[in-house]
Design a protein that fits this description.
It is built from 9 helices and 7 strands, in the order βααααβαββαβαβαβα. With 200 residues, it is of the alpha/beta class.
Length: 200
């Protein structure tokens, strides 16, 4: 029994924080898990910047409403879901992901949640579980699934390495150079072919 585990941002949709950094004119918010491996540290830093600028959930959701899946992402996902079970495992938050799931045809996503005050200020975040990507892959394996994983950032490496097969997709030159043993792809067709080969 195979199950495919995919990262969301950078793989199927643009990076939400980069889009918001551009929309809000705050370049510091362009920092992502491609730059900072410690997600907890990254999120606390982001929340501090939002507070400093008086920005909250509504402003981010307004940006997300304008984000579309990456070209070819929905078709890739549709074809993959036609062949096997797929779960998106993301460090994003339900408050960010829901409109994007609608545009992707409502695939299953495991993600986290934001703590939001009545005035819309983001005050914190609640991770579903520690090391959520690796923990989820291990849990799926414990109930009899072989996992095949793909992602683009530091926080995807553990789930990729723990899986029966794992692939980098549109990753950074640094990550590709540091992990030369991981097959790396730039196009959905190539990633799809590699995954299908593992399903046989």
């Amino acid at each position: 029994m195979n199950i495919v585990c995919l990262d969301l941002e950078g793989v199927l949709v643009p990076e939400i924080w980069i889009a918001f950094a551009e929309a809000s004119g705050i370049p510091e918010l362009k920092r992502t898990t491609r730059d900072e491996p410690d997600y907890d540290k990254l999120m606390k830093w982001r929340i501090g910047i939002l507070k400093e600028h008086g920005l909250g959930l509504k402003e981010i959701q307004d940006t997300i409403a304008k984000i579309d899946p990456l070209p070819g992402a929905k078709e890739f996902l549709d074809e993959l879901r036609r062949r096997t079970q797929v779960i998106i495992i993301s460090d994003t938050f339900t408050q960010f992901a829901t409109p994007l799931m609608e545009k992707l045809g409502w695939p299953t996503i495991f993600c986290n949640s934001l703590e939001v005050a009545d005035n819309g200020e983001i005050t914190g975040f609640k991770m579903r579980i520690e090391k959520s990507k690796l923990t989820t892959v291990k849990a799926l394996q414990s109930i009899g699934y072989d996992t095949i994983a793909s992602g683009d950032s530091y926080n995807d490496l553990a789930m990729i390495q723990a899986s029966k097969a794992g692939f980098l997709f549109r990753s950074t030159d640094k990550i590709k150079a540091d992990y030369p043993e991981l097959p790396a792809f730039e196009e959905y067709n190539d990633l799809l072919s590699a995954i299908i080969k593992e399903l046989d």
